[in-house]
């Protein structure tokens, strides 16, 4: 796996094709290149889940990642850290490292799910140095629309407030 670089979530953005991207930036430290951002493309549901977590927004019903937190807590497990471990053929891979009563446990995960979970429990996130070197971009090199995160969270809240379970019956 190599050297892991601690990162923070800068936010969720839209690229020029209106695809959701989570932006990760290395935490300051020795040997860390300043001004590099790792864009990881994710689906709209995962983007909303991450936004809800980083904005500490309340939802009327638990989202999938909220349910994961409850399940882990009920099983006396906790998220120790999340690692974005590799990039192969344009696909990012991640691991969720858990502490359980039976010892450490590692789960293969999509980075979007791992990050959404980490954001809810304030677990550290790190990226393999090789992934950052391969896919990291200078902070100003690519234009991402990061405006409107609050608007998207508010729109999602309005949707959740107005949704009726009967709307989903066939």
Describe this structure in words.
This protein is α+β, with helices and mostly antiparallel strands and 170 residues long. It has one domain: Bifunctional nuclease domain (Roll), CATH 3.10.690. The protein has five helices and eight strands, in the order βββααβββαβαβα. The chain has helices spanning 44-54, 64-74, 111-121, 129-135, 149-162; strands spanning 4-14, 20-26, 36-42, 78-88, 91-100, 103-109, 125-128, 137-138. Strands 6-5-4-7-1-2-3-8 form an eight-stranded mixed beta sheet. Strand 1 (4-14) and strand 2 (20-26) form a beta hairpin. Helix 1 runs parallel beside helix 3 (111-121) and helix 2 (64-74) crosses helix 3. It is globular. The model has no long low-confidence stretch (mean pLDDT 83).
Write the layout of secondary structure elements.
Elements: E1 4-14, E2 20-26, E3 36-42, H1 44-54, H2 64-74, E4 78-88, E5 91-100, E6 103-109, H3 111-121, E7 125-128, H4 129-135, E8 137-138, H5 149-162
Parallel strand pairs: 4-7
Antiparallel strand pairs: 1-2, 1-7, 2-3, 3-8, 4-5, 5-6
Helix pairs in contact: 1-3, 2-3
């Amino acid at each position: 796996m190599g050297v892991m670089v601690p990162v923070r979530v800068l936010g969720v953005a839209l690229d020029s094709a209106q695809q959701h991207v989570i932006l990760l930036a290395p935490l300051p430290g020795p040997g860390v290149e300043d001004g590099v951002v790792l864009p990881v493309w994710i689906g709209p549901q995962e983007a909303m889940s991450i936004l809800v977590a980083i904005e500490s927004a309340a939802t009327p019903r638990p989202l999938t990642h909220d349910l994961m937190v409850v399940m882990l807590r009920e099983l006396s497990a906790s998220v120790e850290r999340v690692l974005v471990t590799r990039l192969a053929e344009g696909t990012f891979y991640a691991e969720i490292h858990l502490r359980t009563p039976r010892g450490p446990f590692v789960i293969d995960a999509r980075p979007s799910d791992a990050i959404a979970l980490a954001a809810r429990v304030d677990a550290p996130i790190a990226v393999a140095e090789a992934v950052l070197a391969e896919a990291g971009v200078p902070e100003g090199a690519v234009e991402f629309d990061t405006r409107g995160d609050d608007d998207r969270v508010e729109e999602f809240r309005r949707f959740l407030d107005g949704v009726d379970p009967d709307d989903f019956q066939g």
